Amino acid sequence: MTIEAQSQPPVDAEVLPSNSVKLSAQKDGKILSVSVYTGRAEVTRLFKFNVQAGQNQVIVSELPISIDQQSFRVEGRGIATIHDVTFIAATARPMFGGVNVTNSVTSAKLTELGLAHTRTSQALTRAKKALAFVDTYLGSLKPDDVALSSLSSVVDGYEAAAEKLDAKVLELELLQRQQSKEIDEETKSLTRLSGKKQFGLTAQIGVSANEEGEVEVALMYAITDTAWSPDYDVRVTIAKNNEPVTLVYKASIRQNSGEDWVGVPITLETVSPSFGVNIPKLLPWRVSIIDNRPPVPPPRPQRGVGIFGAATATQGGLFGGGGFGATPASSGNTNIGGGLFGLNPLEHQERDAAAGLRQQSGADGTAMQHRSLEVSSKNDVNATFSVPGLMTIPGDNTPRKVTIAELSLDAAFEWVCVPKHDTKVYLKAIIKNASEYALLRGPSTMHLDGSFIARSTIPAASPDESFDCPLGPDPSIRVTYHPLVKKISQTGFLTKSIKYVFSRRITMYNAKAQSVENVIVVDQIPVSEDAAIEVKLVSPALELPAPSAGTASAQSSTWAEKKADSTKAPAPVEVSEGVVAQWGDGVVGADSHGDMGAIGKDGKLHWKCSLPPQEKVTLELKWEVSAPVGNDIMGL
After folding, report:
1. Phi, psi for 314 (deg, rounded to 5)
2. Interior CA angle at 629 toward 624 and 630, to 5°?
3. How far apart are the first and last CA of the chain?
4. What would the pLDDT profile of 468-493 be if each residue is shown by its tens digit?
5. CB-CB neighbours of 313 under 10 Å
6. What are phi and psi of 416, to 5 degrees?
7. What are the φ/ψ torsions at residue 171 (nearest 5 degrees)?
8. What is the structure's pLDDT at 390?
9. Phi/psi at 395 (nearest 5 deg)?
10. Residue 542 contacts residue 581 (beta carbons within 8 Å)
11. pTM
12. Nearest by Cα to 626 from 489, 523, 493, 503
């Protein structure tokens, strides 16, 4: 039988059942399994004990104080029935670093360090007073007090005394800082040792049995201060063609619950715990005209009307309107839907607990086999990773790393340069997650052709989803952004206009021994925000998207067809051999979207180039800006 934890007063010692079973969670309970989430963990701990016929009170002490009591559940096997669960919290104790400790956390070393620190502080105070006395004495001297022949010896004596005292003050300050550091380290060490022994939560479980015998009870609870985070190692080989990207998927597990997980199976969950699962609602969005008229002064109270009169109340006075008679706003529904983590709370815990109970109840004592890596997808959003073998993770918040998988993934490479801001050419890999693993956002170490290049971040990616992986600048491709050339002329007879012609050259050089494909150079021309200013792209000769005929929407039967027919994408322009120009930034990354209606409106354009080995390629950008004579153009 399984019941939820209840918050009840502790059972009085005078009414305890005749049979009381006292267990220690750290000594008598064995951890069967641990499921680690990104912010907490679920622990299943098994106990075996004998019960007598009738009522039995099972007291389980030394439970971690970091338990979420709302998550506490009890399941059992045997001839008994579970009918209630009560928690008893320990008396609050001083906190240090989030760990409960006793009031007397000390040692002989800590006492000695404290005395030494006190002596150093006192010596430092004396040295500073002596230095201040020397300065005061020298400042109090008058010309008549010191003979001219003795002035040099007085100054030399002051310099020697001050220098000696300065050195002593500096030495004592350094010693004081070092002693303070040693005191902090010793205090933290003692706190960790004491904190591991402080498990201040006790659970009382009422168990009734029809006959005497042995039962098995599994406690399942969630603890905080526990998490796992992904870490990646990405290895890219550009020298070899069609070489897949190697991605090593690792997990860093840490827990600071105080209890050690010794030789337990670990399961990693990618789902994020959630307590607010209600769907949000939109409130009415109201607009109105702002009344700029001055406020009307309130009328003067009539003579004879008191402060508690009707007039005052109806006008929202001291006790009128929104006073005590106002109805308070009702609070929203705060019920938590679903289970502990926003899902069915029985899904994994029952599965793990049942498997653990079956193993523990076997009489042959066969050792548990190490599991190979298993992955089970949940609605193509979340996944569960079963770490092979057994792991030991101390409760000291020290990370433990484990390899989840080593993946070989296909990737497409792009070299992107925006020379207007930076002439460096940046290499980027577009990787497709063709595995069954859900990738979480996490740090990554990048290796290019066997050499470490940078630390980066891998974004979250579900199976069959592509993501961008920046690999840093590639120094073997060099770009020169030549100065801008400007020419001015006037046109027209009656209505004269001024024309500005701008041109710029961009030179690329491939220093590699092999050709490089998919080199993208991004630049821009200005965009006019005034009908009197006309901007025209001359080279490359790109055309803006042309709207389709008006009958297209009528002929289209679906919304998607109407959208596809509304704007036609212009064809790219071949500038030279291996060089194609087109509107837009040309980035074909995982986050790019093709909005035909926005092409060219932001003034961005790009060249997609194929660079032969050891050769140069020159690009030309030319545009015109026309405006009526006499108008000053801002932004050129």
Report:
1. -70, -25
2. 125
3. 78
4. 988 889 999 999 999 999 999 888 77
5. 16
6. -120, 135
7. -65, -45
8. 86
9. -90, 45
10. yes
11. 0.57
12. 489
